Amino acid sequence: xxxxxxxxxxxxxxxxxxxxxxxxxxxxxxxxxxxxxxxxxxxxxxxxxxxxxxxxxxxxxxxxxxxxxxxxxxxxxxxxxxxxxxxxxxxxxxxxxxxxxxxxxxxxxxxxxxxxxxxxxxxxx
Length: 125
Fold this sequence. Notes:
- By secondary structure, the chain is an alpha+beta fold.
- It is built from one helix and five strands, in the order E-E-E-E-E-H.
- The chain has a domain at 7-77: CATH 2.40.50.140.
- The protein has one helix at 105-124; strands at 8-17, 20-24, 30-34, 55-63, 70-73.
- Strands 1-2-3-5-4 form a five-stranded mixed barrel.
- It is elongated, with a radius of gyration of 25 Å.
- This is General stress protein 13.
- One of its GO terms (molecular function) is mRNA binding.
């Protein structure tokens, strides 16, 4: 069968290594799910996520045309618990605790100009 990048396929986990899990897509084709593509977040042990013999749905992330190696992903098929750049810990540097947040440039520019003019006046006296 001819596979394409982005295609969703089913397979059986045939082996587990410290760097990922091997998945047999069909009788002749095998791919690798790298440890970073197993799930969102940190993974201490791959066997917590998949075991040998598990049937999994995966997405084809890459196909090396020279070696015919296929890179697979479980993570791309599951929804993230939170956006990777979200402010899930309410860190003040992102404006969550200060209440400032993001504003469009046309709204904030007059405020910046006013502050700059006041500073110039103060330094000039």
